[in-house]
Model the fold of this input.
Amino acid sequence: MTQKMMTATVCRYNPKTDKKPHLEEYSVTVNPGARVLDFLHRVHDTIDPTLSYRYCCAAGQCGSCGVKVNGEPVLACMAEAEDGMVIEPLNLPIVQDLTTDLALYLDVMASPKTSGDCVVPDAETTEKIKELRTCIECLACVSECPAILVADFAGPTAMRQEMRIALDPRDTTNRIPDDVAAGLFTCTSCQRCLDVCPKNIAMPGKAIEKLRELADRQGLTLKTHQNVAALVQATGRSVTHPDRKSFMESVPEVIEPEGEVKATGGFFTGCMYDFRLPDTALDMIEVMKRNGIRVIVPQDQVCCGSPLIRTGQTSCLPALKEQNIRVFADAGVDFVFTMCAGCGSTLKNDYDTPFEVLDINEVLERYGYEEPAKLDVTATYHDPCHLLRGQGISEEPRKHLRSVVKELIEMPNLCCGAGGGVKSGLPDEAAALGALRDIEIKKTGADIVVSSCPFCEFHIASATDVPVKNITTMLLEGYRKKDQIQ
Amino acid sequence: MAEGGYNAVMNSQDCTEDHFTDTMRGGAFLNNPNLVRVLVDEAPERFKDLISWGAVFDTAETSECLVAQRPFGGQCFSRTCYAGDRTGHEMMATLVEKVRALDILQIQDRTAIDLLLDGDRVCGIITLDREGNLGVIRADAVVLASGGGTQVFDISTNCAAATGDGHVMAWHAGAELIDMEMVQFHPTGAITPKDTRGRLITEAVRGEGGVLKNTSGERFMDRYDPVRKELSTRDVVARSIQTEILNGNGTENGGVHLDVSHLPDEVIEKRLPIMLEQFLIYGVDIRKEPMEVAPTAHHIMGGLAISSQGATTLPGLFACGEITGGVHGANRLGGNSLADTQVFGKRAGESAGKTQEIPVKNRLDPKDQVKKTQKRLAAYLAGDTSPSEYKQLIKDVMWEKCGVFRNGADLREALTLLTDLQQCRPHALTPANLAECCSAENMRRLAWMMVLSALTRPESRGAHVRTDISQDWTAESSPYGHTHILGEECRIEAVTNAEKRS
Done:
């Protein structure tokens, strides 16, 4: 067990003397298996005792030592220290160095108003509350929440606490109107909070969407969301029919590939590609034809229900699920695929399907595809939240994109603002997040921005003057160029 | 953070008399019986308070009280209520919710460093803020609830704040402490990676059926306590593990195996989620392989002498929880400390609230005491030893000389080392480091109390084992009572046979 030398960069900032935070490099010896906190202790003990950071239990249970390591929020006592890491404070007001002001968000957390009687909740309720009860108030979720950046939002863990109270039979007060006022509808359901939560608390799914369901029962759902629900109820689709032919009206039910059939996929179009961006879906069909995938498009498919789940309007959900599962189960396909990140995430996480569901990027990865010609453009890639976090897909689209562009220039990942009903319900917030995307896109200097989600593509296109394209459109352009050369 | 549970008599098949007997027996009869009586009588009521405020404990619909209870060491009934293996967290969350709901002024990020005294009456505290500025908070009464101090040992389960500051502040003010030699070594602390050594592996692991094995695969507790085995009292299990390690039956890393892999996965996932998560981070899946464990300093049974109302020996000063002595005797039962915090927390708080107000005209001018504190702090700014080195020295001395097994020679050596350390002064580079220096010196003083008391008790009892002393009495027939520390003096009570029977 020999000690080793480790070098890392630490953000230093004393608001009394420094104009802004700066980074400093430190080298210290650490034990094998040292945690980030142990590295900080070493710096504090052997180099600079003025380094300020919070810690207490050193066992991942008190939540005081949250910091960012290489941009990702972690508990310093649990994350393993690594050479070259950059340690910064969470995105909260800085007191000094890595010490942030936690009270700002913690003081406003709600408490149950109980009658004072000793009532033990039943087992089922207890289990539900427990899922929301393990929070250690480290505020990693607040640090990363995009809605907080641009809207009045109490934050993910505050909503977790609201749902914990709503579930508790010992508090019979109705807090839902206050929750709406505290920004219940500002959450874009990007799931970044769940991603960074050291206790894996599913705040969007188990707190925010559930609170929105309660709000729906009290008629507090936003008007635009109610309109979407009414539309789904009436038409089975969450957007209105376009003036032109929809995607499904433009293609036969079975689309044969050009060469040998590698597999048969049932295409779940999603409302957006069917009605709003049919050309993009048609591009994808061309790519499938060229790569041996027979595509079957069942005409009776309906909205997956995602816009309803995210906004808490779940009453007609069972009927949608039943119909979609039935039409695809009977379609004689090897798998069902979608190119909509939102539909994909919903079919994978909210449905119990008798068939396998794949995202288009997974189809390309699994069955392989003809190498396209390189286009003479540089691109940046926007990770759709429901693809990156909803489905854990980040490498495949980058690989596909690299095969067709000169260079892929990365930008920091952040929700574009299109999800969770925010684009329709709170367009100003969506626009503000879109504007933040525009800034990052411009910083990359890329010629185009590519994504793999109709909501992101549609929304980002409204927020930036850089051209926005779908990943399959890029592949198709690569093929066209290849054909021209030949 | 406390993980395992909260002991309370909640079922008609159980009774407080049994809880009392278990606690006294577990504590090697050094407990103050009056305090134990209060503990066992009021633990159920205080538990119900938590439930009525919104606490979420595991439930069992088959149980008469609807709350699930698990078996813990040294108890004749499964009376440990729990919230998975995060019971302490659940209680903290409930109490924090309660405090937030009430109109209570909270002052954060301040360190109490001295008690203010008017004669011998405690009337406030002197504090340091993050930047090292002094502050004074005047009060009619002060409640110390600063917890434990096993950070003075190199290997400890305790959080970074457990440096005994409250014990030492009260000692400086002239309060009396008892049984400071009684330190519980929790049988099962983690041993790897090195920097996380000592991390608590909750007793709930054994409560749920975990077994201890040496490197030969032998379930060695069969030899040490054939009836209670892994669920013997903590002092017995810790000594057994330590003996196995000392006899060469331990692992390369210096531990023994604690195994739950025979339990169904879902039991581990549901009842021990934190253990599962923590070990997974370090690459061990406890559903499939054993944990490596060794004893780790966990709890100080000794502390401020209190009345059943939570009053210390100083007027105006109250205390509750681990900082107090007498409730747990020479060895605490798992699950009794969480109950202790609630039972005596309420009592101490209520007593403090009933303290007679100090009229404005009689309020102390703290100038002189602040000056004294300033002088002490100024010395740190001119100190000569880094606080971390100073602290590590204490930790090493205590672990090596005042650990699971003790002897007079080691203890005397430790006393000399700790006394010599007084020649060094922790150095504060900036005023922001002053609080750290105060803690470092407090740790030295706390360690001194433990060692001096350990030398003063010429017997093995509960968690305190003197290998250099042979005795012909049992804990129950011991001629000794509490050790007492007051100022520089330490003495031990003699107990007559007549007293023992009463």
The two ends of chain A are 62 Å apart (CA to CA). The mean pLDDT of chain A is 96.
